[in-house]
Design brief:
Layout: E1 8-14, E2 18-25, E3 30-37, H1 43-58, E4 65-71, H2 74-81, E5 87-92, H3 98-101, E6 126-129, E7 132-133, E8 139-141, H4 145-158, E9 163-167, H5 176-188, E10 194-196, H6 197-200, H7 206-236, E11 242-246, E12 252-254, H8 255-260, H9 268-284, E13 288-294, E14 299-305, E15 308-309, E16 311-312, E17 315-317, E18 329-331, E19 335-336, E20 338-341, E21 347-351, E22 358-364, H10 383-389, H11 407-422, H12 426-450, E23 460-464, H13 468-479, E24 483-486, H14 493-500, E25 504-514, H15 520-540, E26 549-558, E27 565-568, H16 579-594, E28 603-613, E29 638-644, E30 648-656, E31 665-667, E32 670-674, E33 677-681, E34 686-689, E35 695-698
Parallel strand pairs: 1-4, 4-11, 5-6, 5-9, 9-10, 13-23, 23-24, 30-32
Antiparallel strand pairs: 1-2, 2-3, 7-8, 11-12, 13-14, 14-15, 14-20, 16-19, 17-18, 21-22, 24-35, 25-28, 26-27, 26-28, 29-30, 31-34, 32-33, 34-35
Helix pairs in contact: 2-7, 4-5, 9-14, 10-12, 11-12, 12-13
Protein name: Hydantoinase/oxoprolinase family protein
Pfam families: Hydant_A_C, Hydant_A_N, Hydantoinase_A
Length: about 700
């Protein structure tokens, strides 16, 4: 347990190329950032090395740490790479193949050689047991406990499974058979990881629920070992505080919940960036924001409206085709709704031998060997290499001068790998890389906003990540956006998201009925059960019990429709008297989504959700770096030539980000450098520094 002097907190974002860290100690008025290369063979090494380094640079000790908040892409990578545990599945007799049959739809009707996502549990490890509960919760066939024991022994002793998932028909309605089966398995194998679908995803739709339970079991052993390793390494260095983990929905939770339900961490790392954008948007009073987070491996775009990121409650993991809906494994988890593409600083450029055209991404150089300019063995030019050739990066000031870049090596790589094949010089090849990656991100953003009926011209972009500020001006120009906001410490802003994210979780239960036939006492009892469970989890995660708030939502549809929409509810304690308000809320949500309503058509509710959250902590970003005395105005420290598309080479003043105080203003073209990133200000743009030390860029 942390002592009374342990007031420092560290947020850690482990990315594909860099591990970002932010230390904040309100009691000591310290905010300090760090960035170092990720260690792909063991991500915990970079976590520990970065933590030790931040403590040394701030003069603190491990005993001064109250907590460490961490997010990881380990779950996503494990599913994509299929490197998880050997899993067995117990299911209702007759439903062994439901997770392979899926929805019986084709994501591409015209592809005769359609590739489908491989199930995580092959058929020989999917075993049936006699049992049956009806959709109304009645027991139609009692559970055969002897069959459960026999199946478990076969899976463990013959198939050598490392985890078991249990997914029975209609267990969302009544989980007694799943719980009893779990008890039988636990009695035989107490240490075996076990995932019950009614606990992992207690929602209607058997295929999605079973898929989520299998995925949870698939990553459970790996995540337990990883979290144990991180905790042990921190304790070994004198850390006595708490380790918390970021959920895919943007809340923070305990290690215990993360080990029990690791599938809820599938978008853990990217969610932190959305939470950072929400914090910056609220602080600056920006109600409509596109969050743009471009790191070393991927770029993430997310809508933030009303100071909250958009959420959804389903996700597809490991898609066979990156942007093709239906080509991945369906999961019922709460996630921040964002689009993620393989466009980062490490995305590799190549010439396609079939077409002779240049392509960029999604393959990435990662941290090892990294882009060519790192001098760590990379031979294929990446986006960061192109930025260096175009003058956007200072080879002597990358990571504040900690890492020297090699422009000559990059020029040779472009000449050999790109220029010789398409007949242009290295500069034009680098400009082509920038054009391709920026157009790819713009197209993805347009699609993401169009699906929601949004116009990018009405939004402000908040840009961060190591490569985000480098590409933000051109991306905003392509999207016809008028304003870009770049926070101080933009290169590590995702790690800031861990520190400002609230302790939060989402609960769900399915109870299907038409509105006029609902058992309101049963629904209120479900909300009471979810509130008690959420309160216990958030209290364990450090929230004060009296500060926890609840937001109830129902997923509803017209009778006969295939899918439902979320509808806010007036309270957790409902009765027939609330029916008119609920109906009107449904029609309003329906009109917002489809621009029409059918008020004579009957309505049914399927699932009931409860968002549980406590307030996050406020951080004064201005405390991150003290403004240098006597240099509050916009006084450039150098000049560098930069190549802009359609304009040519321009002499750009280079400003020290840490010397720009609130009120400082200048015009583009220009470069603004800080330790972890560089902001490119295009020709015709105007910049000012607001009172929160955000760089605000208004495009021409």
């Amino acid at each position: 347990m942390a002592s009374g002097t342990a007031t420092a907190r560290i947020g850690i974002d482990v990315g594909g190329t860099f591990t970002d860290l932010v230390l904040h100690d309100a009691a000591r008025d310290i905010t300090h950032t760090g960035k170092l290369l990720t260690t792909p063979d063991d991500p915990s090494r970079a976590i520990i090395d970065g933590t030790v380094r931040l403590l040394e640079e701030t003069g603190l000790t491990p005993a001064d740490l109250h907590s460490v908040i961490h997010g990881t892409t380990l779950v996503t990578n494990t599913i994509i790479e299929r490197t998880g545990a050997t899993v067995g599945l117990l299911t209702t007799e007759g439903f062994r193949d439901s997770i392979e049959i899926g929805r019986e739809t084709r994501y591409d009707l015209y592809d005769l050689f359609l590739e489908t996502p491989t199930t995580l549990v092959p058929r020989r490890r999917r075993l049936e047991v006699p049992e049956r509960i009806g959709a109304d919760g009645d027991v139609l066939l009692p559970l055969d406990e002897a069959a459960v024991a026999t199946a478990a022994r076969r899976l463990v002793e013959e198939e050598k499974v490392e985890a078991i998932a249990v997914a029975f028909l209609h267990s969302y309605r009544d989980a007694r058979h799943e719980k009893r089966a779990g008890a039988v398995i636990n009695a035989l194998y107490p240490a075996l990881p076990l995932s019950l679908s009614a606990e992992v995803a207690p929602e209607i739709r058997e295929y999605e629920r079973a898929s989520t339970a299998c995925a949870n079991a698939y990553v459970q052993p790996l995540m337990a070992r990883y979290l144990d390793r991180v905790e042990a390494a921190l304790i070994e260095r004198g850390f006595h505080g708490r380790l918390y983990i970021m959920l895919s929905g943007g809340g923070i939770t305990t290690v215990r919940e993360a080990k029990a339900y690791p599938i809820r961490l599938i978008e853990s790392g990217p969610a932190a960036g959305a939470m950072a954008s929400s914090f910056i948007a609220r602080m600056a009073g920006l109600e409509r924001v596109v969050s743009f987070d471009m790191g070393g491996t991927t770029a993430k775009m997310c809508l933030v409206e009303g100071y909250e990121p958009n959420h959804k409650f389903d996700f597809e993991a490991g898609r066979v085709r990156r942007f093709q809906k239906g080509s991945g494994l369906p999961l019922k988890v709460s996630v921040v709704d964002m689009i993620e593409i393989g466009a980062g600083g490490g995305s590799l450029a190549r010439v396609d031998p079939a077409s002779g055209l240049m392509k960029v991404g999604p393959r990435s150089a990662g941290a090892m060997p990294g882009p060519v300019c790192y001098g760590r063995g990379g031979t294929e030019p990446a986006v960061t290499d192109a930025d260096l050739v175009l003058g956007r990066l200072d080879p002597a000031y990358f990571l504040g001068g900690e890492m020297k870049l090699d422009p000559d090596r990059v020029t040779r790589a472009f000449a050999e790998r790109i220029s010789a094949k398409i007949g242009v010089d290295a500069e034009q090849a680098a400009l082509g890389v920038q054009r391709i990656v920026d157009e790819t991100m713009a197209a993805a953003t347009r699609m993401h906003l169009a699906e929601k009926g949004k116009d990018p011209r009405r939004f402000t972009m908040i840009a961060f990540g190591g490569a985000g500020p480098v590409h933000a001006w051109n991306l905003a120009r392509l999207l016809k956006m008028r304003r870009v906001v770049v926070p101080l410490g933009a290169g590590v802003a995702s790690a800031l998201g861990f520190l400002v994210a609230p302790p939060a979780t989402d609960m769900v239960r399915s109870h299907v009925a038409r509105l006029e036939r609902l058992d309101w006492d049963a629904v209120s009892a479900l909300f009471a059960e979810m509130a008690a469970e959420g309160r216990a989890l958030l209290t364990e995660a450090g929230a004060a019990e009296g500060a926890i708030s609840f937001r109830p939502v129902a997923e509803m549809r017209h009778v006969g429709q295939g899918f439902e929409i979320p509808v806010p509810l007036p309270s957790m304690s409902l009765s027939a008297a609330d029916l008119p308000v609920i109906r009107e809320a449904f029609f309003a949500a329906y009109r917002d989504r489809f621009e029409r309503s059918m008020e004579d058509s009957p309505i049914e509710a399927l699932s009931w959700r409860l968002a549980c959250a406590a307030p996050g902590q406020h951080i004064d970003l201005g405390g991150a770096v003290k403004t240098k005395p006597g240099t509050g105005g916009a006084v450039p420290r150098a000049t560098r030539r930069v190549l802009f598309e359609g304009v040519g080479w321009q002499d750009c003043p280079v400003y020290d980000r840490y010397a720009l105080a609130p009120g400082a203003a200048f015009a583009g073209p220009a470069l603004v450098e800080e330790r972890e990133s560089t902001c490119v200000v295009g020709p015709g743009s105007k910049v000012h520094i607001d009172r929160f030390l955000n760089l605000v860029m208004d495009l021409e």
